[in-house]
Design the sequence.
């Protein structure tokens, strides 16, 4: 099983500032990585796929980078609606054995 | 717009069965693989199972293999998850999720709101 490890578990940032979230895979997943945002009481929503491609209607302040085992989600200038939990997920395995990270909670400082 | 609506969740006793359904609309149902993903309170999501667009290929997480069955009715735009021999470890919110492709080799692009399953005596 590919283990996904996210850091930090909680990130406190002020509105308008930059946030950087990390995700590490236990083995090479190339660019088969997605990021999801989950607000309280809601389903996860796809934000980034193929490590760096923004999903539909995702603001340009969100960017993904990385390949192999190290990945980053960057939010350039935090807005109030961005405070949520973010999960990374790998989809490299075949047959599928998709795995998620444990999440990073982005909270208002 | 893409809509996935789960139903069938509830409170059940250990060792019993439950069938979840997912009604889909807003896209060509038969062109997409579908998944079930579950999430326990305060935890990250966990992939449960995947079915290809034509229903011929099915994949399961090791934790549910042999207990859960997956099927789809492309004429009714509905996905099903049959859960047998449930245990308290199966307690979670179960999401129906769409794959952008036909075979389920990708990420999860649309999610339903989930149906809760509680396994307790």
Sequence:
């Amino acid at each position: 099983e590919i283990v996904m490890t996210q850091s930090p578990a909680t990130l406190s940032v002020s509105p308008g500032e930059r946030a950087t979230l990390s995700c590490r895979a236990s083995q090479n997943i190339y660019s088969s990585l997605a990021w999801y945002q989950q607000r309280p009481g809601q389903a996860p929503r796809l934000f980034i796929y193929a490590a760096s491609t923004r999903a539909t209607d995702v603001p340009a302040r969100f960017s993904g980078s990385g390949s192999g085992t190290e990945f980053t989600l960057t939010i350039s200038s935090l807005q109030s609606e961005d405070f949520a939990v973010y999960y990374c997920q790998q989809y490299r395995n075949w047959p599928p054995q998709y795995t998620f990270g444990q999440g990073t909670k982005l909270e208002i400082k | 717009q893409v809509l996935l609506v789960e139903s069938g969740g509830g409170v059940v006793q250990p060792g019993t069965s439950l069938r979840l359904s997912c009604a889909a609309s807003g896209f060509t149902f038969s062109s997409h693989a579908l998944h079930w993903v579950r999430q326990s309170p305060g935890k990250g999501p966990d992939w449960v199972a995947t079915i290809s667009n034509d229903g011929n290929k099915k994949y399961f997480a090791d934790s549910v293999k042999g207990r859960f069955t997956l099927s789809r009715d492309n004429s009714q735009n509905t996905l099903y998850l049959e859960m047998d021999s449930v245990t308290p470890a199966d307690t979670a919110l179960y999401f129906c999720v769409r794959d952008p492709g036909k075979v389920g080799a990708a990420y999860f692009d649309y999610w339903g709101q989930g149906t809760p399953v509680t396994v307790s005596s």
In short: Chain A has a mean pLDDT of 96. The two ends of chain A are 35 Å apart (CA to CA). DSSP finds no helices and eleven strands in chain A.
